[in-house]
Amino acid sequence: MIRLPIFMYHHVSEPLGLSVKGMQVSPNEFEQQMSFLFQKGYRCLSLPDVIVNFQEGKPQPERSFVLTFDDGYFDIYKNAFPVLKKFGFSATVFVVVKPVEDGVPGYLSWQQMRELTRNQFIFGSHTLTHPRLPSLDTKTIGRELDESKKVIEDRLGGPVDLLAYPYGESNEDIQDMAYKTGYHAACGVTLGYWGPFNLWRVPINEHENSLTFYWKASGRYHAYTSLIVETYIGSKLRAFKRHIRGKTPRPFLQEQ
Known about the structure:
13% strand
């Protein structure tokens, strides 16, 4: 497992309302987080470099991290980009294609993405329409993966090798389809078993404080998640939590 944190952000903005509650950090908080990483000597790696290291069996550099942003919102360009440029960091942005193509306000434009590409940003697919992939038929899933890849490649003039599953949801069949579509790796969250086509990420949101951010940057978050997701004890803990909450797991999350 890749122990270094692959941070997952969405909005870098002031609070935007209930529809995105928990999915944003303020520009000031974001700068404080990046300043912490810089001051502590952490190294920002590109996601492709991390994947190559893993595939070649090379250890990841100590005190390193990866930045990713989901959806492709304009505030990445407005609020995150200047901060990252200040500290010499870059990121991978996973774009939902249809709202960008339709010119929906609040999303990056292709022109802005091209500028970010010239500043070492990498762009991947977050599908065409951001659906829950496990709920779709195979043909529709294939279209979401393939057409989004082709559109981004056409608009930005380069290969698109990386995918992030909407809501972090996938299964073995979807992961296999991603591989066959031509992606080199895919990101989830902490659902299902870890693998190159289900890279776990560390969510960062408005609820972070200095202690939780340090804990997540240290790599301990992955150790905790591995215990919860991949062990017998963890399965029992999850079952207990579901019982307490009165919930049942989604089918794709059930243990094989």
